[in-house]
Amino acid sequence: MQAPVTSRHVVFSHGQEAGPWGRKISALAEVARAEGYEAHSVDYRGIDEPRARVAKLVEFCKELTGDLVLVGSSLGGYVAVASASLLHARGVFLMAPALYLQGLPALRSGVLDCPAAVVHGWRDDVVPYEHSVRFAQAYRCALHLLESDHRLHNQVRVIQYLFEYFLVALDLPAIAFE
């Protein structure tokens, strides 16, 4: 008798001006599928309010069972972080996340309770890379600063590699630090 296969899902959240299957999300979905995950992308077009986007992500994910990895780009990064503990995410992968920006609701303290990685461009003129440095420092997550702008399009291949590494690392046994 075979053991049941655990379902594994990656759910993507796009940025404010993007769509659900843009260049980065499509490229990372290939990686997710290659690593045994089902890939989903929530369509937030027409929803500008961040809390409404969080509610939509939570609603979308309520039927998914098994491991859940959230991936967010720009405003989608904010949405992924704000939703992670509510959804008991296994991991969060962020690209130029819109964190600590004026006009966005403040994230509650200790909002992240799972492994996370952040990729940000040195030349981002939408969300300063220093915001990702602050977040990574607060949550002790991996931080990758790349020679790119907010869209990160010239680094898609590198981001695919980093995402693959992130997914593989989620399955590695934790090492205790003294």
SSE layout and pairing:
Layout: E1 8-13, H1 23-34, E2 38-42, H2 50-61, E3 67-73, H3 75-84, E4 91-95, E5 116-121, H4 129-139, E6 142-146, H5 156-170
Parallel strand pairs: 1-2, 1-3, 3-4, 4-5, 5-6
Q: Can you put this structure into words, describing what you see?
A:
The structure is a single chain. The protein has 178 residues and is an alpha/beta fold. The protein is 34% helix and 19% strand. The protein has helices spanning 23-34, 50-61, 75-84, 129-139, 156-170; strands spanning 8-13, 38-42, 67-73, 91-95, 116-121, 142-146. The longest helix has 15 residues, at 156-170. The termini are far apart. The model has no long low-confidence stretch (mean pLDDT 94).
